[in-house]
């Protein structure tokens, strides 16, 4: 049965935006919506099936992106303890979604992490350096800024949205945004 996850189609930030912070936040939200749109309408079987030689499934990719945000913004930027920062890395190197995890569980975790990430970004300046003690131990030579981290997360989304373009086209022929 097809799911409906989006209320409206994703749209890029307004062309008139010039503030880098607003542009980064806007494009991150845009790519979050693009990823969800790529998954919208796929059956649970398609969400859990790989059509690619690497073996990852669309649902695994969604969980991976959730954990990318958690690793870079919660564990990385804030240095908050994270029980298992590499939770989506399975023993075979593929992203992992356990059989008992429902599609709704993975989707809810994605939305919750996106909301948490927005809060983190709202509370810092792009020039703020990450805290030490989480992903970046006290003995590191350099700490990434919030701006660098956001660009990194954005490129992860852009790259994986492209991967989902291919996976979705192979699943049912759907193309586009």
Structure description:
With 177 residues, the chain is an all-alpha fold. The chain has helices spanning 20-39, 44-47, 58-77, 103-122, 146-172. It has a single domain, classed as Up-down Bundle (Four Helix Bundle (Hemerythrin (Met), subunit A)), CATH 1.20.120.450. 51% of the residues lie in helices and 0% in strands. The protein is globular.
Write the layout of secondary structure elements.
Blueprint: H1 20-39, H2 44-47, H3 58-77, H4 103-122, H5 146-172
Helix pairs in contact: 1-5, 3-4, 3-5
Share in β-strands: under 5%
Anisotropy-based shape: globular
The first-level CATH class name: Mainly Alpha
Structural class: mainly alpha
CATH topology: Four Helix Bundle (Hemerythrin (Met), subunit A)
Average residue pLDDT: 90
How many β-strand runs?
Answer: 0
Low-confidence stretches: none
Main sheet: strands, sense, barrel: none
Q: CA-to-CA gap between the ends?
A: 22 Å
CATH architecture descriptor name: Up-down Bundle
**Superfamily at the CATH H level?**
dinb family like domain
């Amino acid at each position: 049965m097809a799911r409906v996850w989006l209320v409206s189609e994703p749209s890029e930030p307004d062309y008139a935006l010039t503030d880098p912070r607003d542009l980064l936040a806007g494009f991150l939200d845009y790519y979050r919506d693009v990823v969800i749109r790529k998954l919208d309408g796929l059956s649970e079987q398609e969400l859990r099936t790989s059509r690619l030689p690497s073996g990852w499934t669309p649902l695994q990719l969604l969980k991976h992106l959730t954990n990318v945000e958690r690793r870079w913004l919660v564990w990385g930027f804030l240095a908050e303890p994270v029980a298992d920062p590499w939770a989506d890395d399975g023993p075979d190197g593929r992203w992992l979604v356990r059989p008992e995890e429902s599609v709704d569980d993975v989707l809810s975790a994605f939305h919750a992490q996106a909301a948490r990430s927005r809060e983190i970004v709202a509370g810092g300046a792009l020039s703020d350096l990450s805290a030490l003690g989480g992903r970046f131990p006290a003995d590191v030579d350099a700490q990434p800024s919030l701006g660098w981290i956001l660009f990194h997360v954005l490129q992860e989304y852009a790259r994986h949205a492209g991967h989902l373009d291919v996976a979705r086209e192979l699943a049912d022929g759907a193309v586009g945004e």
